[in-house]
Amino acid sequence: MKLVVIMPTYNESENIIPMLKALHEVFRDIKHTCEVLVVDDNSPDGTGDKVREFSRDNPGVHLLPGEKAGLGAAYLRGMEHAINHLGADAVFEMDADFSHDPADLKRLVAELDDGADFVIGSRYVQGGTVPKEWGWLRRLNSLGGNFVARYIAGIYRVRDCTAGFRLIRAALLKSIDFSEIRTQGYAFQVALLHEAVLLNADIREVPVHFTDRRYGESKLGPGDILEFLYHIGGIRFRSYRTFVKFCVVGASGVVVNLGTMTLLMALGVNKFIASPIAIEVSIITNFFFNNYWTFRYRNNRSRKRIRGLKFNAVSFVALLVSYLTFVLLSLWFPDVAPQVHQFIGIIPATFINYFLNSYWTFSEDKR
Ligand code: GDD
Ligand code: MN
Question: Cα–Cα distances in Å, from 226 out to 184, 213, 223, 231?
């Protein structure tokens, strides 16, 4: 397996060479092939030149220069290059300023080796810390950002959503629809994580101690905070859009179900036979639309076959409940139009479908 550390830099000339040397040391203890890709945005302080020179004697160090367009843009460019040109199987995100301890790389790799898709060096799980020197404003800023990400963007299960120290499998990145990520700055971290959550990736957090940078100053500015707040709604809306699509599909299923039933009865089919056929037809159309429209972006996931089986099992239970409701109502109220009974039968089936599918078929990884 090949791991590439993507390290964005902007004016990190004092940090970058010591960092590259520290990484070199740590790579020896990792059993995978490790390389570094420095994504420098033509730093005026000459960071890029230093890296270029260093890379002459160090074949595992690469430089990807470019125009300054923000941290997120730099990561996107780096990920594309690492995967398509360096053949990375997984990539690290890491700061150049020693805020992230290079020695922690090993612990992130251990989780990847254990099967994780997305490993976060987390400040906000048990054992993780932020610098003691941080004043309340800085703490509040970081906690606020995480609160917004967790509760507005809907990434509830992750504690450190804005972390910039992460290890991500290339296979996961390949299945992400990057056209959905419109953030250029720091908000990219949350946007990318949200896509991973939607794909139901195996996301794990490893506690780390975050230290303040040694040299230079933070590049996180008010513009990044504004962009973050501006995009967080859009990130959430992506989830809403899925939910709205799910409801539209459900409504179309009702029409298909009742339409099929009416048609079959008009053709002279007995209502007790028309009912289950209509239910089954709507299950199939719902599955088709949800699979190719609502959850299109989830299609690349592994264990798809098991999910398909679970989905069918759930649908079967829903069909039985729906049909049983229809039969009982038809026997108790024989004078009411069968479409009304059929419609009422859809209601418990919808609940069963929703709960069993979201807590079983599409359940999140509990680890
Ligand atoms: N290429 C490029 N372009 N690199 C950039 C840019 C840019 O526009 N802006 C920042 N960087 C680089 C920096 O040189 C550094 O290596 C890294 O990205 C992180 O920037 P810092 O300025 O050190 O960020 P921070 O310490 O304020 O923010 C940390 O915490 C954030 C919130 O938790 C980082 O870990 C962020 O990644 C994290 O999102
Ligand atoms: Mn930093």
Answer: 12, 23, 5, 9
